[in-house]
Amino acid sequence: MAEMDRFVKVTEAARILGFASFQSIYQMIARDELNAYRIPNHNRQRILLSDLIELRNSANSKNNLDLHNNPLKSKKGKGRPRKYS
To answer: How far is residue 21's CA from residue 11's CA, in Å, rounded to a whole number?
Structure first.
């Protein structure tokens, strides 16, 4: 645990990682991708902020590596395809 580390709620963890729902965090905990802790006198699970930051940074570096390794890969457009081109 880092020197100034703290525990965050599951909903805060979802917001930090950019997820739309806290259920994604519970799924990551179930797959053992994230460590969850129970604090005495609390029912809910908490996650270390340093674990979240490390996970976010590793995901960002992985995405950057993918873009550099395959520069010819085109990005797909978002949303519904146009009816007329």
So the answer is: 8
